[in-house]
TrEMBL record:
GO terms for biological process: regulation of DNA-templated transcription. This is DUF2191 domain-containing protein. InterPro entries: Ribbon_hlx_hlx (IPR010985). SUPFAM superfamilies: Ribbon-helix-helix (SSF47598). It comes from the Bacteria.
Length: 102
């Protein structure tokens, strides 16, 4: 099924980056995220955002994460940048599988 959804540009860029990192299509990545969301944890079972943010001794915010950090090496970061630049050059706007701009 094809559909058009209006999503924030920053969210689409993050999804495109994740798809490139995982060497997957944007369509497959988003479909998996929707499946996970539909079967996953209810919003009421998720920790409140305020419980993940603390203030350290300097007064700066300290954000706790429940997942392991992503480690990027310089060569990986450069390759990701090149992939994103190439993707951006190929499309002037975001499109879904059906060709409609989002």
């Amino acid at each position: 099924m094809k559909t058009t959804i209006d999503l924030p540009d920053a969210l689409i860029q993050q999804a495109k980056q994740r798809a490139l990192q995982q060497k997957r299509t944007l369509k497959d990545l988003i479909a998996d995220y929707i499946r996970q969301g539909l079967k996953g944890t209810s919003l009421s079972a998720m920790p409140a955002a305020s419980s993940l943010v603390e203030t350290d001794a300097t007064g700066l915010p300290l954000i706790r994460s429940t997942s392991a950090p992503t480690v990027h090496t310089v060569p990986n970061a450069l390759q990701l940048e090149q992939d994103l630049l190439q993707t951006h050059e190929l499309t002037d706007h975001h499109t879904w599988d059906d060709g409609h701009p989002d």
